[in-house]
């Protein structure tokens, strides 16, 4: 009985656990291939957030605490003495709650009684923020909802500290 040598084929990537990838969780990428003689080396190629492709070796790549910066394209190559085969490219999309939330004020500078001002809430989130809520410090009920909050014909009662809360399905 003899076996037929072949270069790697049916090379594939599996992601564990499957389903949505959430920032901070543990994720394992596994490369598998059908080859005879067995695969001698596995090379991972990945491109994070529009950067250049980088490589790493080994049949598995483990993210102990995956970060939003790990989002990008990944594929693997399996190699034996007969040749090389590559998997399809997978897109890793790491989900996370809002962060780096800030408020911009327009117009900036001194605010004069009778004038108007617009506050805009800016937040980084994946999936995108689906709810913005505006609060005034020491006032329990929300002042407004929506990414921008305009105060027109400002009077002394409007004086105070304002902040926004950004929410998506992952947190606030």
From TrEMBL:
Residues 86-109 are annotated as: Disordered. PROSITE patterns: IG_LIKE (PS50835). It comes from Hucho hucho (huchen). One of its GO terms (cellular component) is membrane. It comes from the Eukaryota. SUPFAM superfamilies: Immunoglobulin. This is Ig-like domain-containing protein. GO terms for biological process: cell-cell adhesion. Residues 8-91, 98-172 form the Ig-like domain. Pfam families: Ig_3. InterPro entries: Ig-like_dom, Ig-like_dom_sf, Ig-like_fold, Ig_sub, Ig_sub2, VCAM-1.
């Amino acid at each position: 009985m003899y076996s037929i040598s072949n270069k790697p084929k049916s090379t594939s990537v599996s992601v564990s656990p499957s389903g949505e990838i959430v920032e901070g969780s543990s994720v394992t990428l596994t490369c598998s291939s059908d080859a005879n003689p067995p695969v001698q080396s596995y090379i991972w190629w990945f491109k994070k957030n529009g950067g250049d492709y980088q490589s790493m070796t080994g049949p598995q790549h483990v993210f102990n605490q995956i970060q939003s910066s790990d989002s990008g394209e990944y594929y693997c190559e399996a190699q034996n003495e007969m040749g090389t085969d590559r998997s399809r490219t997978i897109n890793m999309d790491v989900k996370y709650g809002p962060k780096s939330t800030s408020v911009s004020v327009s117009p900036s500078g001194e605010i004069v009684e009778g004038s108007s001002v617009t506050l805009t809430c800016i937040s980084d989130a994946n999936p995108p923020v689906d709810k913005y809520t505006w609060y005034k410090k020491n006032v329990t009920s929300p002042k407004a909802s929506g990414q921008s909050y305009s105060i027109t014909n400002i009077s002394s009662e409007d004086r105070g500290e304002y902040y926004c809360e950004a929410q998506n399905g992952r947190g606030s």
